[in-house]
């Protein structure tokens, strides 16, 4: 993909490892019930479901519904970027520190019809200080289907105060998924 240097780790950056207490090889629950990306209580959200893997990687599935259209019968590009953002955020969750998206790059390679299940794979390629470098790929209807979207991102580690000062705090986070218990 056309990827800026900002989302590629500097040469020599060591391979990142998940936190020793991170759940690997397991289904990752939603981090917040009302989250547009993963929350089960969101009526028109993406309801993204993900599984973590060794190597600081996540696979996730998202089925495009009627409520996700841009052009008639096709997924909205912003919704697809959201799906990538969510699946990328689930990877940094495995570092068990709070992160937010700083930069998100998206390349759209194929249209994604309503009814498609996107198989998304995301991976962390390096962590330098507060910066986590990430990449993502979404394939049509199967883990080895045609690539429809590629993504890359820079996530920035933030203190928990980021959420208490700017949002409604961390009360909605499920207790067993706390970042820093
Ligand atoms: C029990 C506790 C529970 C807490 C739970 C909390 C969270 C849950 C965590 C995980 C949830 C699990 C899954 C997540 C699911 C979904 C993921 C969605 C994530 C999002 O959807 S989240 C919303 C959108 N997101 C924002 O709402 C961010 C708004 N923004 C800011 O809040 C600031 O902007 C911030 C904090 C980003 C930086 O501000 P700052 O002042 O702290 O730091 P600063 O600016 O110094 O940047 C430090 C270094 O990052 C470089 N840098 C920064 N931004 C860059 C950019 N855009 N491009 C290239 N480089 C960039 C600088 O160049 C510098 O680099 P260097 O150190 O090399 O100079």
UniProtKB/TrEMBL annotation:
Mind listing the UniProt keywords for this protein, alphabetically? Apoptosis, Cell membrane, Cell projection, Cytoplasm, Fatty acid metabolism, Hydrolase, Lipid metabolism, Membrane, Transit peptide
Pfam families assigned: 4HBT
Q: Name one GO cellular component term.
A: membrane
| Record's subcellular location | Cell projection, Ruffle membrane; Cytoplasm; Membrane
Protein's organism: Actinomadura macrotermitis
Where does this protein chiefly localize? membrane
List the protein's name: Acyl-coenzyme A thioesterase THEM4
Q: Which InterPro entries match?
A: HotDog_dom_sf (IPR029069), THEM4/THEM5_acyl-CoA_thioest (IPR052365), Thioestr_dom (IPR006683)
